[in-house]
Give the backbone structure.
Amino acid sequence: MLEKMNGHAAVAGTVTFDVLGPVGMICIDNPPVNAIGHSVRQGLMDAIARAEQNPGVKVLLIISSGEMFSAGADITEFNGLQREPSFQRVESEIESSRYPVVAAIHGLAVGGGLELALACHYRVAHRNAKLGMPEITLGIVPGAGGTQRLPRLIGTRAALDMILSGAPISGVDAKTKGLVDEVAEGDLRDAALSFCKRLLDEKLGPRPTCNRTVDTLDETTIAAARASHARALKGRTTQDLVIEAIKASRLPFSQGIAIEAALAQKSLASRESLALRHVFFAERESGKLPGASSAVVKPVQPPAIRRVAVVGAGTMGSGIALAFADAGLEVLVNDNDPSALNRSRESVQSAYASSVKRGRITQSVADERIHRIKSNPALADVADADLVIEAVFEDIELKKDVLSKLDYLVPPHRLIATNTSTLSVTELARATAHPERVLGLHFFVPAQASKLLEIVRCDHTSPESLSTAFRVAKLLKKIAVVAHDGFGFIGNRMMLDGYWREAEQLLLEGATPAQVDTALENFGFAMGPQRVSDLGGNDVGTKARIQLFQRESRPDPYFVIADRLTEMGRLGQKTGRGFYRYESGSREAVPDPEVNSLIEKLAAERGIKRREIGDQEIVERCVLSLINVGAMVLEEGVAARAADVDVVWTSGYGFPRHLGGPMFYADTLGLPNVLHRIRHYHRTLGHYWRPAALIERLAAGGSSFEQWDKTSASQ
Ligand code: NAI
């Protein structure tokens, strides 16, 4: 072990410098994620200068305190404005150091964090470290030397793959690829100091990455990389810029790095990146408890949640049980139908068996999780759970009955949540003696995998309940969005009254299910509406509409096709027939002439004249109706921010993330243009196209949804 000779010095608030014998140890200490903001960059420059002045220092070690090496650039600098010293300047200072510079990596080293490490002459990583370049997820070309240095270390092919995937690799994999020189099994600092000592003993000097040669990136490799990332990068363009940048790594380093800088700037200014960054920030914002800074909510410390009860062991109940078991909680599953409990047990077993088969978890982890889920038919047994989630049939009277029983059994300070997808949470809560502890936790299918959790609050919801709901989202690593109570909340309301309804209208007017689905998939949706309906079950929507019509009316036609398919037993994939046909065991949607005849008949009954409809019209009508109802959801206060609506649609409904969500997309189209087209359809198609007052107001004032969010936040 090397001896510490000189004292410890903080060269900036976020970087310290210590001299340990011949090692000048520079430590980044910028909690919580060691972001490399201006102060860290300046600190690194100062530390290097200090080392220069110390004749005893023969090798530099850059290490970090806390949980990770660095999560990358400071997100407040994502707009591309970097105060000097820039990343490039710091990296060039490191790379040209006359002493060897070693990076010691633990936890995450991603984005600018990894780029900094690449500029060092040697790298030691802990075996569990995660090294990656996730910039592509924000539509950005790595701009701090990543596209030039990574290919020099691991070859153009591996570099292209790593940058296009955005996914990190482990310390062990990084060693195999040649990205790091040594893997530390135990204490990283000790391993890194020993490595430094070895460099000195073996008289190994600086080894600038920029001086290495690069292999050629050939067209076959590019085509293969494009193909393997085609799904994740559908509709995207950042990959073209990344490829251009990596190709430039063949040039002398100074030229390559200049090309990278220009391409990085171009990517930052692209609409795609603006949209992706919008969603990134919107997700961070939506996950914060509303009013957390106000006195009303701040003092609330939600109780710990260790055990969860789920009432209703159907599709959703089973998925919710899996989600909690995955998060390490104990789950009690209740159902009044023993056969449903059996099916639920089987579906849990088969979900874990498939995870084991795919290598996602080991058999012992699966066994442990299965063991955490207890099927217990007695309702009274749920009383000692910290949280109870109701997921019985979508029937208001049934749910009221179940909730009032739960309210009687469960101590009043514990949260009771309903997973209703459309019913009035306020009405359900009023069926209990403690409505303040009843709210909606709206999970999506499959509940164990979907990213979104809509938290539905009512006027009477207590801050404690809301705070517990946020804790639940955090426990499950889901993106939380708060919705106020109202039919379908944010997502289903926009889907049912806007997007899906318009898709059905287009079918009646002459489009086919395959045409509508393909047009919207080409626009960027993960899956077209009819295919989604067949996947989830056409009966699910029909049941929700039966409940809706007890409270509110909707002019005809309103899902006449889907409801007729349900009546015919064409429930979708589960019955092998829906909007499409499915061969046994296959998920491939095959167009069915029987459905076309049904649609023609329903159109004729309504006197709708059928015609050829182009893809552009399909996309325009479906997306504009989504935007219009989204604006209504905002003006009614069901969603607090346009950005929340975008999060709901990008994380829960497959709206293309690179278009930023429906409301961001509306802003990019320009609200006057959006309004002009909505008015056109209002004239030609009537009722459902009534322009949202909010769009009229914003368009008239030359404003945007983004501006509206900013104004609302400041009020
Ligand atoms: P499901 O029909 O698959 O399961 C409902 C379960 O509740 C059945 O197993 C039934 O036996 C049980 N149940 C009925 N009465 C009960 C009682 N008194 N006590 C205990 N268990 C009882 O329904 P699914 O699809 O799981 O939906 C459940 C809830 O989740 C509904 O409110 C639905 O709207 C909502 N939801 C459904 C989604 C979907 O796509 N399936 C998505 C999001 C929410």
In short: Residues 148 and 249 are 5 Å apart (CA to CA). Residues 1-6, 292-299 have pLDDT under 50 and may be disordered. The longest helix spans residues 615-635.
